[in-house]
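Batch job 17 of 40 flagged for manual review because the log was empty.
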Amino acid sequence: MDTLKHTQKVSFPFPLGYYCLCVLLYIIALPFLIASSFRLKHKDSIPARFFPFFIKKLEYEPHYWFHACSFGEVKSLEPLINAFYNKSVNILITTITHTGFNEAKRLYGNKADSKAHIIVRYLPFE
């Protein structure tokens, strides 16, 4: 008679495990993020990306959301965004780099009129 008992492996739910791992890494990285936020280059981007109380709510619901990591990707989106801009739509542009954010602000930071609105933001922690 086979007396070996088969045990079932209890699996940890992936979303919960991933969330807990992210929280742990965030806590470990917190001192480095705070120290880096004092650098001139990261003065605006670190708080906007990693500290939820600094993230401003959107003023409107965007019709389209474009994400561009860097300067080059922001430049490559320019014809597409300009085409949408003429169709009276609201657009959200997110970036993760300082240079990409500055270029998007330079190109679209003051394009808010009765036809369309363009908001440029840093993408929170990805």
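Reviewer: the log was empty due to a logging misconfiguration, but the result itself is present. The radius of gyration is 21 Å. Unflagging and moving on to job 18.
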